[in-house]
Every structure is written in structure tokens, then in C-alpha cells.
Amino acid sequence: MEGTLFREITAQAGPDLLKPIVGRGLAIGDYDNDGRLDVLVVDAEGAPLLLHNETPAVGNWVQCRLQGTRSNRDGLGALVWVKTEEGKRYLRLCQTDGSYMSASDKRVHCGVGTAKVVDIEVYWPSGQIDVHKQIPTNRIVSLIEGKIRGEGRLS
Ligand SMILES: [Ca+2]
């Protein structure tokens, strides 16, 4: 099935991926805010290795910067549903963990294919549910707990 298989491209990705290192931590984030996730690897014996994602853009995306008011300030633990007009639904968790002594970008990243706008539902750790309607894609949106963007609603 096309689009569901991995392909070995290490040799094409540049010499940094071919160099053996003692990797001890890995963080994922979009350090240049272009919508493509980048990777930082900590080398226990050398300088950190930034793997800047320069692949061609293959779809639209949205990143949510959460700010809790009743929940924790960073919105960690919040569940984020991103829904397209075509009926596709994506679930993401606001988290920074995942690797040894590393913290990834706390922003919630979601690829949304061809969608130009999305609805975003945030289920905050406090129990608050915020619904943000018709959010344009290919941007970073700041979502504050209890404050609605667009024509959304609180529940
Ligand atoms: Ca990037």
C-alpha cells in the first residue's frame, strides 16, 4: 500500500547520520518554525547534533502553543483533537518527555494533509474543554485555557 512503508534513506540524508556517536538524549521540535519537525541529538562525547528537517513540505500543519490558567502553565497533559472539514481527526498529547534527560518542544504539532482550516478541541487537565473553530493551518496558534479563538465555545 503506497504511503504506508518506510524507506531507508540514511545515506541520502547527509554525512552526519553516518557518523557513529554516543547518543544520550533526543529532543523533537520545530526550531525554525517552518512546520517541519527537527531533531536534536545529544552526543555524550561531542557537540549536540541538530538534524534540521529540509524535506519538501508534503502537507499542511498546525502547531498549538498551550497556556494553562486553571491547569498547569504549559498545558502539559492536555489532549488536543484536530479535526478537518473532510472529517479526519487527529489526537495529540501535550508532552515534552520521551528521551533520556531531554525535553522536546511543548507545542503540539499536527500534520493535517490538505486541510486549509481545522477545528481544535483542547481537553485541559483541569477538566476544561475549549473548542476553537475554523483555525487556518500552516501556523502556530496560541491557545489559552478558557479563552476561545474564532467562533468556538467553552464547555
Ligand atoms: Ca523545522
Outline of this structure?
It comes from Chthonomonas calidirosea (strain DSM 23976 / ICMP 18418 / T49). The protein is mainly β and 155 residues long. It contains no helices and 11 strands.
The ordered H/E elements are EEEEEEEEEEE
Distance between the termini: 41 Å
User: Low-confidence runs (pLDDT<50, min 5 residues)?
Assistant: none
Strand content: 35-45%
What does this structure look like?
The protein is mainly beta and 155 residues long. The chain contains no helices and eleven strands. The protein has strands spanning 23-29, 38-43, 49-51, 60-67, 79-84, 89-93, 108-113, 117-123, 129-136, 139-144, 153-154. The strands form three sheets. It has a five-stranded antiparallel sheet with strand order 6-5-8-9-11, with no helix packed on it. It has a three-stranded antiparallel sheet with strand order 1-2-3, with no helix packed on it. Strands 7-4-10 form a three-stranded mixed sheet, with no helix packed on it. A hairpin with a 5-residue loop joins strand 8 and strand 9 (129-136). The structure holds calcium ion. This is ASPIC and UnbV. Residues 75-141 form the ASPIC/UnbV domain.
